[in-house]
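Design job #97: recover the sequence.
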């Protein structure tokens, strides 16, 4: 593949409904990238049919991705960066047409940074089932209608199978490193176990070896928040006559998730018992500042994500168990050949540090010993996206191994 060419062609079309409604200042039925929207920095690769663990086959799948740096003639300097649940392929770069948010790891990936794009060729795909260009529920099925809730159930392993097919299409047989946080780190573990010869190094940031009952429970109430929105319409909201989708339910799910992603220490110290706009909520005329904070993030989220995709990806996270069918976690991780970095956050109440301890203890070639790197932070789970200096130092050590 010629890495200097422009993005692969996307079928021409009018500006999508989601884009048009956003321009008008109204929340769209879906925040998914749709055909006809600005392509931005995306490129696309068709990976064909994807066989799934369920026995079904997802036909004619496509992966959207972005890349930075230059692939070496020997193709030995590629790093695969895998995003978290609400992320996408836009790891680095400004917001703009086609990209509603700026890059989510712009202080980690770039020239002279921890993942130095002057040295490494960095590739970041949007996950299968996502909503920013890869095949997902908002994509058109073979019958010309959106997949919606007909989209098949996916596991983390299914998504990694699609990523392996994507890498094959790019002509990359072995990655110098596969890096990810949260859901992306679940994919990293599956990569290292499924295709050990294809991975030289791995970075597992803030994720367990298997989703626990507590984590599944936290995820399940978010899914229910989306499904119980009357405008969810059983998942068939893309062509609703009034143009309205389940934005309230999706925003509520995002607000609930924020309580998993951030710590009590941060929220208490940042907002205390302050209220918004100087109005005392005890008088019935206002809201606490922390409520407005959650509202802001929930409403903003609906403009860049899709409700059906949120369900698909959350259920995929619930499926995560690297030891399933492999004799347990320890036996599965014993297969890993890559040099490894495992990193956790002391205030993470979504994926507590104990989960990373289990992973690190079972990996044969840790670059930091039998225990994971512990990042002290008030930011909770999101610290892997915020504590750039600590995370960057750990990644530099891995990439020097």
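Job complete. Output follows.
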């Amino acid at each position: 593949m010629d890495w200097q060419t422009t993005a692969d062609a996307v079928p021409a079309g009018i500006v999508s409904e989601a884009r048009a409604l956003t321009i008008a200042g109204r929340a769209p039925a879906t925040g998914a990238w749709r055909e006809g929207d600005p392509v931005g920095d995306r490129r696309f690769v068709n990976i064909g049919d994807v066989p799934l663990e369920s026995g079904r086959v997802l036909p004619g799948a496509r992966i959207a991705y972005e890349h930075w740096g230059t692939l070496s003639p020997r193709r030995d300097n590629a790093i695969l960066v895998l995003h978290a649940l609400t992320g996408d392929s836009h790891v680095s770069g400004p917001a703009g047409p086609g990209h509603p948010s700026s890059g989510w790891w712009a202080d980690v990936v770039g020239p002279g940074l921890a993942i130095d794009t002057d040295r490494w060729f960095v590739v970041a795909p949007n996950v299968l089932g996502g909503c920013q260009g890869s095949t997902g529920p908002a994509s058109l099925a073979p019958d010309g209608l959106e997949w919606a809730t007909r989209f098949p159930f996916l596991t983390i392993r299914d998504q990694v199978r699609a990523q392996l097919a994507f890498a094959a299409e790019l002509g990359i047989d072995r990655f110098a490193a596969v890096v990810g946080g949260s859901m992306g780190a679940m994919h990293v573990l599956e990569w290292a176990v499924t295709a050990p010869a294809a991975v030289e190094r791995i970075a597992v940031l803030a994720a367990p070896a298997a989703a626990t009952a507590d984590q599944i429970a936290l995820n399940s109430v978010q899914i229910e928040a989306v499904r119980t929105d009357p405008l969810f319409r059983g998942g068939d909201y893309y062509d609703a006559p009034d143009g309205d989708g389940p934005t309230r339910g999706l925003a509520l799910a995002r607000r609930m998730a924020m309580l998993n992603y951030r710590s009590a220490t941060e929220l208490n110290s940042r907002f205390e018992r302050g209220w918004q706009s100087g109005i005392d909520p005890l008088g019935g005329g206002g809201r606490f500042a922390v409520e407005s904070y959650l509202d802001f993030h929930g409403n903003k989220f609906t403009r860049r994500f899709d409700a059906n995709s949120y369900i698909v990806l959350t259920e995929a996270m619930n499926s995560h168990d690297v030891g399933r069918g492999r004799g347990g976690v320890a036996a599965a991780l014993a297969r890993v050949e890559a040099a490894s970095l495992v990193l956790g956050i002391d205030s993470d109440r979504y994926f507590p540090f104990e989960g990373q301890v289990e992973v690190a203890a079972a990996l044969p070639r840790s670059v930091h010993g039998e225990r994971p790197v512990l990042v002290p932070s008030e930011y909770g789970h999101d610290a892997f996206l915020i504590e750039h200096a600590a995370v960057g130092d750990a990644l530099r050590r891995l990439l020097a191994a």
